[in-house]
């Protein structure tokens, strides 16, 4: 009983006709009493909606839209259902809104009434609740522990075939049909595997015969390969002999050429020491210095001539200066002094002009003052018109005179500045020419020392060359530069010829070799050819090469045949490996097919006999579930002191039996029918859930019954509450009040449901 589920409380806010309702549900029998339409069923419907219904299925639940599930005038509301499961407390919150989707949260209430979120989202919460309650489906609730209005006897009222299908569905027996459909393709696959087994067996035998044939072919090719390998070895030795002979003959030809080169080298060697001495001279530098001296001498002469020209131009400028400006430049000063003299003169002219400018400004101000004043600005005496006119005339004449003097000063100042620029320009040119002259003289002096030194060395070498006929053609020239160039060129050419011959030797032998080594190798090669049984003077290289090619062709032919055989062997081995792989694959398939053959009887039994809605397992489970429902129903009827029991046949037809015989179920009284319906619901819950339900909800179980029968039904429900931990009954019949452990009265005022608990005192008072 540790996992007993009971409802602790339900809270409604703007749901159906309830604006704000909160009801606590204790253990025992709780009655929700009130007139029809007061909102009693709304409380249970709201709880069912919060715990089990997806908003998409609301029409199937109440046959209306989500808007009608909210209180009129409200755009949102919520439901809270507090549950106790195995001693743990849970709260399911369900928010309803017209502007958005439903909200749902499942909490676990832990220490200090703190809430721990377990699930969020409608479907997530619904799945979690179903898991907590351990129910297979929402539909199972409808036919077991919650009886909505007019549905208490629905299971009894259904046709036997419908009842059977419904019970099997609630028990999950329809999954057996699904399992059968799942296994059917596998059964067909196994049947197909059996057909393939023999063909794979035949294919395996054929492959094994092919592997044996390949093994025989591989062995024959290996014998032929060994024979060819021996022939190849003999040909290889013959080829090496001819290769050595050809190599020696070619080397002999090289050495013969080398002997000729050696003779030429010996002829050149006599002049090598003189050539090295010539090349040790700094000929290029001597020629370069000679050219530099010639160029610098020419440039020096040009600079001296240019200096004379500039000095003449300076003298002409000074004479023009004296004539045009009517001044006398001191003859003792140089060009720099002339420039300084002219600078001072320009400053004096500028100063004189400033004085004249001041006089002009004073005169101009005087004219303005006299023109606008009636009195003399100096003595304060009144000025007559004649006097003012005379003073103005004198002042204007003075202004005209000053302007002329200013113009003359400007012209003189500009001329002085122009002469200063010309003299400076000429002086700059003169200084540049002097620097050029000085540089040329220094360079000439510096290069002359090197020239004399190199020339002495050259003359010493030339004196030695006169004793050799090798350089005679160069010494006939009278020009020293031409002689130097000639002997230098001839020395380079001689050294080049010597190096070329040496290079030819190196190229012939691809290594450094001396003249003595050439002679030695020549003799050795000649002897080696003789040792091979050939006379060097009678050897025909073309014939030797023809024999060599013949051996080589035979060798290549044998090698090619060996390669073909090797490739064939590798191909056979590869085919053998592929056949072996195929053999393993077929063996594996045969093993798998063998498993299919072995499993076929079991799979065939499961598909065609065991599974499915008509299979053995379904029949056994159907029989067992029928037996359990019948057993539990009769046990509950006995506890309720009912004087009858039932039997459920294989087609789920229900028959009623009393001590006096079998009765038609339709002959049961209203109270007996309700008792049977309750017993069946609890029995089905026991069978489906595997345990006694923790709560049981009955909505209007006594509808259409008279007073006495209602009293009997309520007494039965009271007995049920002693067996089931929590029973909640919704009724408009007040007879239940004296039997219930808690009574909640529901009424409607102004379209709003009002909930009020009735105390024990009120119950007694009402009874009295």
Describe the model.
There is one protein chain. The protein has 768 residues and is of the alpha/beta class. The protein folds into three domains: 5-173 and 616-767, Rossmann fold (3-Layer(aba) Sandwich), CATH 3.40.50; 180-267 and 566-608; 284-465, Helix Hairpins, CATH 1.10.287.510. Helices cover 67% and strands 13% of the residues. It has 20 helices and 15 strands. It has helices at 40-52, 58-62, 66-69, 122-133, 138-142, 154-157, 160-170, 174-269, 272-280, 283-325, 335-372, 385-465, 472-475, 480-509, 515-531, 541-610, 616-639, 670-689, 707-723, 760-767, and strands at 5-15, 18-24, 28-33, 76-85, 88-97, 103-109, 115-120, 146-147, 645-648, 654-658, 661-663, 695-699, 726-731, 742-749, 752-758. The strands form three sheets. A six-stranded antiparallel β-sheet has the order 2-1-4-5-6-7. Strands 8-12-13-3-14-15 form a six-stranded mixed β-sheet. The longest helix is centred in the first third of the chain and has 96 residues, at 174-269. The relative contact order is 0.14.
Computed structural class: alpha/beta
- Fraction of residues in helix: 55-70%
CATH superfamily of the largest domain: P-loop containing nucleotide triphosphate hydrolases
Low-confidence stretches: none
Total DSSP E strands: 15
Number of helices: 20
CATH class of the largest domain: Alpha Beta
